[in-house]
Amino acid sequence: MPPTIPPPQVRWVMWAAMTGSIFLYLILVRFGFIAAPDPGTVEKPVSDGGVSRPVILTAIGLVNAVASMAIRIVVKSVRDQQGRRVTPAWIFPAFVVALALAESPAVFGFILGLQGEDPKSMMLLFGIALVAMLANNPASFFAKADDDA
What we know:
By secondary structure, the protein is an all-alpha fold. It has helices spanning 8-30, 53-76, 91-114, 119-135, 138-141.
C-alpha cells in the first residue's frame, strides 16, 4: 500500500510557514519589537573559563541542521530489492521532523537575541536555519520515485 502523503500545496504551505518563522524571529529581535533587557540591569554570570552559551547553542543548532538534511538524504536513498527508488511510508513524518530540526537554530538565535547576546552569533544561527530550510524544501524532499538524479 502506498504511503498517504498530503498534496503538494499542503507541504509547501508548511514549509513556507516554518521558513517564514525564521524571518519573524529575526524581525522581532533585530528591529526592536521584542527588546532584550538593558545590559546594565541584567546581571550576567561570571565566566569561569567554560564554553559560552552562544557557542553551545550554535553547536547544537548546527548539529540539528545537519541532522535535518541527513533525514532528507536517508528518505531519498530508500530503495526496493531491485534497486529502484521508492517512497517510504514514513516520508511525511520524516519531513515534519526535518522541518522542526531545521527551524531549531532560528529558535536558538531568537533566545540569544532575547537575552541580549552578541548579534553575530544570533545571525549565524538564523543563517544556519535558513540554509537547512532551503535544503529541505518539498521539491527536493519529495522527489519522484523514478528519478535517478
